[in-house]
Design brief:
This protein has twelve helices and 13 strands. It has one domain: Alpha-Beta Complex (Spore Coat Polysaccharide Biosynthesis Protein SpsA, Chain A), CATH 3.90.550. By secondary structure, the protein is an alpha/beta fold. Helices cover 35% and strands 23% of the residues. The longest helix is centred in the C-terminal third of the chain and has 13 residues. It has a nine-stranded mixed beta sheet with strand order 5-4-1-6-11-8-12-10-9. A hairpin with a 6-residue loop joins strand 9 and strand 10. The structure holds uridine 5'-triphosphate. Uridine 5'-triphosphate binds next to helix 6.
Length: 289
């Protein structure tokens, strides 16, 4: 029997240097993809997978994230008074229930491993999800729900992966698999940003995980790794010595919204995907081209 996954850690404390200068003033994960901030989509994805508690790892100047998921009586009251019930429903869709959000300051962006470690007291002794919000995943069955389903099947630790061209592997965390059997495969290793030509596969760690709490003591001892940062991958490699890890090749499309062109592409794709805007969006894009 696997323990249910109820909590998710969303690390958003990075500097967002790839999307400067806008990330100076606006938290990168509040940048918009068409008419919603990136975080709105990933929180919705996680709620659809049964996640009940959201632990945001934040840095200075990110109070707007808290405000976004809170109610706003002024806006809601104005919409109600004007009878704009459809917009009101859209606004209320993102309001999280009381007690379901926590915010922890990372204080310094020491790396993803350090960010996840900051959640240790709130996670306690249960399995949990890690969601990298800038990897926006569009899928018929939401990516996190696919991940939870894989976890319920095989237990242990799950890492969502996807393939990239061989020439790109040096930019990512890469997994090694024990043969490939459908979408869920036993993992034998991982490496963070391997030198070109040395990657064990072309499957990258793409931003959704389910981890066991035994990762925390390993993160506590974890030194700096690739790029001088405390890497989550390095502690997962340690945990793999005593626990099972499976890779899940999820079904869907990922947009890297931490990258300017990735964010632009997501904006176009999500506009085209909205029936009420698709024709106007297509016409605007055609006009530009
Ligand atoms: P990224 O490397 O994509 O984000 O980390 P970044 O560091 O903000 O971006 P660049 O490379 O400078 O443009 C993946 C996720 O982990 C978070 C980031 O906010 C992002 O959501 N993160 C990273 C932290 O919360 N703390 C860290 O110390 C590092």
């Amino acid at each position: 029997m696997t323990k249910r996954v109820r909590k998710a850690v969303l690390p958003v404390a990075g500097l967002g240097t790839r999307v400067l200068p806008v990330a100076r003033a606006t938290p990168k994960n509040l940048l918009n993809v068409f008419d919603r901030p990136i975080l709105s989509y990933v929180v919705e994805e996680a709620r659809a997978a049964g996640i009940e508690h959201f632990i945001f790892i934040t840095s200075r100047g990110q109070g707007a994230i808290e405000d976004y998921f809170d109610g706003n009586p002024e806006i809601e009251g104005a919409l109600e008074a004007k009878g704009k019930t459809d917009v009101l429903a859209e606004v209320r869709r993102d309001i999280l229930p009381p007690g379901s959000m926590s915010f922890i300051r990372q204080m310094a962006p020491l790396g993803l491993g350090h960010a996840v470690w900051c959640a240790r007291e709130l996670i306690g002794d249960e399995p949990f999800a890690v969601i990298l919000p800038d990897m926006l995943m569009a899928a018929k069955t939401p990516a996190m729900a696919q991940t939870v389903a894989a976890y319920e099947k095989v237990g242990g630790n799950i890492v969502v992966v996807e393939s990239v061209p061989d020439s790109e592997t040096h930019k990512y965390g890469i997994v090694a698999l024990d043969g490939q059997d459908g979408r869920i495969s036993k993992m034998t290793g991982m490496v963070e940003k391997p030198a070109q030509g040395t990657a064990p596969s072309n499957l990258i760690i793409s931003g959704r995980y389910i981890l066991q709490p035994e990762i925390f003591p390993l993160l506590e001892r974890q030194g700096k790794g690739a790029g001088g940062e405390i890497q989550l991958t390095d502690s997962m490699i340690e945990l793999m010595k005593s626990q099972d890890f499976h890779a899940l090749e999820y079904e869907g499309t990922t947009y890297d919204c931490g990258d300017k062109i990735g964010l632009l592409k997501a904006n176009i794709a999500f506009a085209l995907d909205r029936p009420e805007f698709a024709d106007a969006a297509r016409a605007a894009i055609k006009d530009l081209l």
